[in-house]
């Protein structure tokens, strides 16, 4: 899938309030064949920042708080009304939050708040959209597993890799590291459970550690990160189910 880019019928992207979410949204719209339906979930009730960027017909602004099951249910209904029996091809769980902390200053409040958004949010969103993802997998049943058919992409972080334990001196952020390590386990669980339905599940580190910790470690720009992630998504297949990748297309250890 070289220059053709990522070709996908419908995408739901959470965490579109800024940063990577907004970047991925723009990147999806700029693909050679952009999705017919893009559902951008954001917390800003008016979606003002989104409206400025994406005044285009295939984008439906769906307002979803991934920590609130009722908000997710409402988003599912909106998506279902638009996509019908074609289902939802791609769910990108990008909602995330962090609190700066060290081991000495970490609190139960931080831990629980960050885990609720970063780990429970993607769990609830994946559970709720499963029927629509299954429909998409069946509708495209003759195709191999891919993001074009049916996939859940969890936006994770190398800071959640237990083996790499990167950048400990620069940022301990225990709550964030633990939530992303747990998100990676969730990716594995989703892959084990949903793989037989033709749904691909992968964790992706967008490398967007701001600022980059040392030369050559993270992408120089948000654009570079987005380009890399979308290129990776275009190439994922069944052999990648339940694995962890970075924006450069390199496999990461759990």
UniProtKB/TrEMBL annotation:
A Pfam entry, by short name: adh_short
Superkingdom assignment: Eukaryota
A Gene Ontology molecular function term of the record: oxidoreductase activity
GO cellular-component term (any): cytoplasm
SUPFAM superfamilies the UniProt entry points to: NAD(P)-binding Rossmann-fold domains (SSF51735)
PANTHER family the UniProt entry points to: C-FACTOR-RELATED, SHORT-CHAIN DEHYDROGENASE/REDUCTASE
Family: Belongs to the short-chain dehydrogenases/reductases (SDR) family.
Protein name in UniProt: RDH1 dehydrogenase
Species in which this protein is naturally found: Emberiza fucata
Phylogenetic classification of the source organism: Eukaryota, Metazoa, Chordata, Craniata, Vertebrata
Recorded name of the encoding gene: Rdh5
